[in-house]
Design a protein that fits this description.
The protein is an all-alpha fold and about 120 residues long. The radius of gyration is 16 Å and the shape is elongated.
């Protein structure tokens, strides 16, 4: 069940914090970059559910990894280049994004290791 996955729970926490941080964006960006970031967070959540349900996960995990990395870049753009969020919100949000990334990396590694044939000693 997806709700038992740690990465699922951590992604929900990331979305909750991100939703609060997006409120700081200027009004004219709420329907452009803020909407893109919000959608990307939901895409990451959706891809976690999809990946967990698939028998063959390699393609789904690649899509999930790409969606996560895109989210990271969009949030970084909002902070570093456009200065829509302050340093504290950026740091706290990126901690949550990075935590999801670490869990995703571990999930990808475990799938690779499980797919490799056993070595004879």
């Amino acid at each position: 069940m997806t709700k038992n996955l740690i990465i699922y729970e951590k992604t929900l926490e990331m979305i909750e914090y991100g939703t609060v941080a997006i409120r700081q964006f200027p009004k004219y960006e709420k329907f452009v970059l803020a909407a893109m970031i919000r959608q990307q967070m939901y895409d990451v959540l959706k891809l976690i559910v999809e990946t967990n349900k698939r028998t063959y996960r390699k393609t789904a995990m690649t899509e999930l990894d790409i969606a996560h990395e895109t989210l990271r870049h969009l949030v970084d753009l909002a902070y570093r280049r456009l200065e829509y969020i302050d340093h504290k919100k950026y740091t706290l949000w990126m901690e949550r994004i990075n935590e999801v990334g670490k869990l995703l990396g571990g999930w990808i590694r475990s799938q690779r290791e499980g797919a490799q044939p056993a070595k004879n000693e």
